[in-house]
């Protein structure tokens, strides 16, 4: 994509999601994430009028007296995007590829962060770290981030989530909101995720093509693995379709279980999804869960 077409695509995407960004900022993104970054300050004994939701029950049980945790709120939120640029993430069977959806998701969230005066950063990865944009605030920075995302020509074809998690572990010390955006055709386990969730608020966004969930019945078809380049002949009959769909569902559930085991969320979209609707529903459900857990 040449520079003129790239600039046009960025501007087109910005215009396309201008209203959805305002919609997200109407309460969804801000209510869930703004002001949730907290630095621990001190423990002190409970006093009448203190918020019971900040009682430290472990210390209370040990001492026999109620204690609360005090925090210093970070007014700014750093939002980081860990974007999978492997070959499988850049493919698609229809007019809208997975890569198009990734662009839209990052644009929606990065522009929401910018309008909310938050910083955003980007780590693009395959089986290596492909490119890093350090977290900054402002619309000019957001446009630079989107430009870099759309112009990337990755060197690697395979995927390693570990390299991205290692990278953000070295780069970012203060608590941040981290979105991992991928089709998740990769190995992923709680041991990998543990150090990141210990420091950050982690959300996985899985983007897939409908054919990956359930391929069409189309007889003998040559299939190429986008990441390995391996080609094989498959008979897409109904039995194979069922086995393929079951295999995908099993793998996806395993990935979700690993994220759930470390109390991280996962959103699932496909190339036909309405990204704004999916993100809005996620934010509302997350906020409802947080309020239920805290009694708020």
Gross CATH architecture of the largest domain: 3-Layer(aba) Sandwich
Q: What is the molecular shape?
A: globular
First and last CA, distance: 49 Å
Instruction: Please identify which CATH superfamily of the largest domain we are dealing with.
Output: von Willebrand factor, type A domain
Task: Chart the SSEs and their pairings.
Elements: H1 3-16, H2 18-25, H3 28-33, E1 38-45, H4 57-63, E2 67-73, E3 78-84, H5 98-115, E4 119-125, E5 129-136, H6 139-151, H7 161-171, E6 177-182, H8 190-199, E7 201-208, H9 210-213, E8 219-224, E9 231-236, H10 238-261, E10 265-270, H11 275-294
Parallel strand pairs: 3-4, 3-6, 6-7, 7-10
Antiparallel strand pairs: 1-2, 4-5, 8-9
Helix pairs in contact: 2-5, 5-6, 7-8
What can be said about this structure in brief?
With 296 residues, the protein is an alpha/beta fold. It is built from eleven helices and ten strands. The protein folds into two domains: 3-31 and 75-294, Rossmann fold (3-Layer(aba) Sandwich), CATH 3.40.50; 38-73, no CATH class.
């Amino acid at each position: 994509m040449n520079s003129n077409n790239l600039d046009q695509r960025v501007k087109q995407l910005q215009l396309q999601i201008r209203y959805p960004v305002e919609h997200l900022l109407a309460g969804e993104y801000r209510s869930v994430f703004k002001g949730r970054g907290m630095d621990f300050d001190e423990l002190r004994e409970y006093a009448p009028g203190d918020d019971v939701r900040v009682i430290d029950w472990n210390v209370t049980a040990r001492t026999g007296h109620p204690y609360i945790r005090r925090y210093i709120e970070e007014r700014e939120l750093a939002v980081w995007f860990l974007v999978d640029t492997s070959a499988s993430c850049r493919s698609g069977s229809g007019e809208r590829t997975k890569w198009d959806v990734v662009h839209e998701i990052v644009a929606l969230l990065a522009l929401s962060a910018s309008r909310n005066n938050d910083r955003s950063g980007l780590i693009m990865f395959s089986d290596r770290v492909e490119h890093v944009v350090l977290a900054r605030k402002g619309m000019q920075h957001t446009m630079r981030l989107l430009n870099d995302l759309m112009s990337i020509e990755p060197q690697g074809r395979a995927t390693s989530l570990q390299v991205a998690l290692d990278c953000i572990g070295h780069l970012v010390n203060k608590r941040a909101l981290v979105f991992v955006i991928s089709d998740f055709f990769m190995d992923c386990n709680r041991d990998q995720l543990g150090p990141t969730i210990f420091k950050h608020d982690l959300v996985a966004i899985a983007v897939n093509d409908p054919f990956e969930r359930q391929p069409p019945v189309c007889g003998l078809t040559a299939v190429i693995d986008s990441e390995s380049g391996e080609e094989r002949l498959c008979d897409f009959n109904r039995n194979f379709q069922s086995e393929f769909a079951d295999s995908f569902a099993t793998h996806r559930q395993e990935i979700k279980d690993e994220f759930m085991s470390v109390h991280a969320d996962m959103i699932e979209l496909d190339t036909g999804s309405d990204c704004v609707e999916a993100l809005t529903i996620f934010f509302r459900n997350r906020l409802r869960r947080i309020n239920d857990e805290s009694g708020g």
